[in-house]
Design a protein that fits this description.
274 residues; alpha/beta; two-stranded parallel ribbon; 8 helices; 10 strands; 34% helix; globular; Glyco_hydro/deAcase_b/a-brl; hydrolase activity, acting on carbon-nitrogen (but not peptide) bonds
Length: 274
C-alpha cells in the first residue's frame, strides 16, 4: 500500500468564530478540494478500510484517501454532509461529546470556545446516513498533559456517551490537538477504541500503528499547490515516524504549565504525532 493522505478538517464555513477561523475552509474551497482529490484519481475510502489494511486485512486501492472532521461543528450537517453525499464520499466525524447540544438544552460542557455545534439529533441522523461517528473526548483536553484518571474518564466517557446516543458500538477515536503519549494510547486500546488519529502532517501507511494514524491538516491558509501535492503523494513524510526531541520537550513544557494551572497549547488540531 502506498502513502495514504488522511485529511483532517474542522469547520467548513464562510463566517466562523475567530478562534477557529485559521482552521476553517469555505464551502467553495472545500468543494474545490474534493474536485482536486477526484482529479488526482484518488479513491476516497472509509477510515475502517485503512485500519483493516494496517491490521493486515484486505489491501486498499492503489491510490486512495480518507476524509476526517474534528470537533463536531454544525456546518458538517448543513454544508459538508450534502457535498459528500452528492459525490458518494465516506467520512469520519470525530465528536467532542460535551460540546454537543442535548435536546432543548445547552452543551454539557467542553473546553472549546463558543461556536455552532451539532445537536444529538443531528449526530444520530448523520450516523443513519452512513457517516462514521468517532470520539474526540468529552471536553477536548490535552490528554497527555492531564492526570491519568482524568484522561481515562475523557476517553471512556466519550465512548459510552456516543454508544448510548447511537445504540451501537463506536470504534474510532481522535486525540484533541493531536496530542497523545504511550500511556494515553494504552488507555485508548484498553477501553475498546480500535483506531485513533493524531495530526503529524504526514501520510499514513500499512506499516503504521492503528492508534497513531497521522493526518494532513487542511487549514484556511493551505495553498492549492500544496493540497494538490498531497493528492499526488508529495509534500509530507510518511509514517511511521519516531518521536522527535522537540515533541518530547513540548510535552514536558505543557505538563509543567498544566500543573501550575496555566495550560499551554495550540487550538484544535495543532499537535504533532508523539
Amino acid at each position: 500500500m502506498s502513502a495514504v493522505p488522511v485529511f483532517v478538517y474542522h469547520s467548513v464555513n464562510t463566517d466562523p468564530p475567530p478562534w477557529i477561523a485559521p482552521y476553517t475552509v469555505t464551502p467553495r474551497v472545500f468543494a474545490e478540494q474534493l474536485d482536486r482529490i477526484a482529479d488526482a484519481g484518488l479513491t476516497v475510502v472509509p477510515l475502517r478500510r485503512l485500519v483493516a489494511a494496517i491490521r493486515g486485512g484486505p489491501p486498499l486501492p492503489p491510490r486512495c484517501a480518507v476524509l476526517t472532521f474534528d470537533d463536531g461543528f454544525a456546518d458538517f450537517y448543513w454544508t459538508v454532509a450534502p457535498l459528500l453525499t452528492e459525490r458518494a464520499l465516506p467520512a469520519t466525524l470525530y465528536v467532542t461529546t460535551g460540546a454537543v447540544h442535548p435536546p432543548g438544552g445547552h452543551p454539557e460542557g467542553s473546553l472549546l470556545p463558543a461556536a455552532a455545534m451539532l445537536s444529538w439529533r443531528q449526530v444520530a441522523t448523520l450516523d443513519a446516513l452512513g457517516f462514521e461517528i468517532g470520539g474526540h473526548t468529552v471536553t477536548h483536553p490535552q490528554l497527555d498533559a492531564v492526570p491519568a484518571q482524568r484522561a481515562w474518564r475523557e476517553i471512556v466517557g466519550c465512548k459510552r456517551r456516543l454508544e448510548d446516543a447511537l445504540s451501537h458500538p463506536v470504534y474510532s477515536f481522535a486525540y484533541p490537538h493531536g496530542y497523545s503519549s504511550a500511556a494515553v494510547r494504552r488507555t485508548v486500546r484498553e477501553v475498546g477504541w480500535t483506531s485513533a488519529c493524531a495530526v503529524a502532517n504526514a501520510f499514513a501507511s500499512a506499516d503504521g500503528d492503528p492508534v497513531r494514524i497521522p493526518r494532513l491538516m487542511v487549514r484556511a491558509d493551505t495553498r492549492p499547490e500544496l493540497f494538490t501535492q498531497w493528492t499526488r503523494g508529495g509534500g509530507a513524510p510518511t509514517a511511521p515516524l519516531s518521536e522527535s526531541l522537540r515533541t518530547k520537550g513540548w510535552r514536558v513544557y505543557r505538563r509543567s504549565r498544566a500543573l501550575l494551572g496555566r495550560p499551554a497549547g495550540g487550538p484544535p488540531g495543532s499537535g504533532t504525532l508523539p
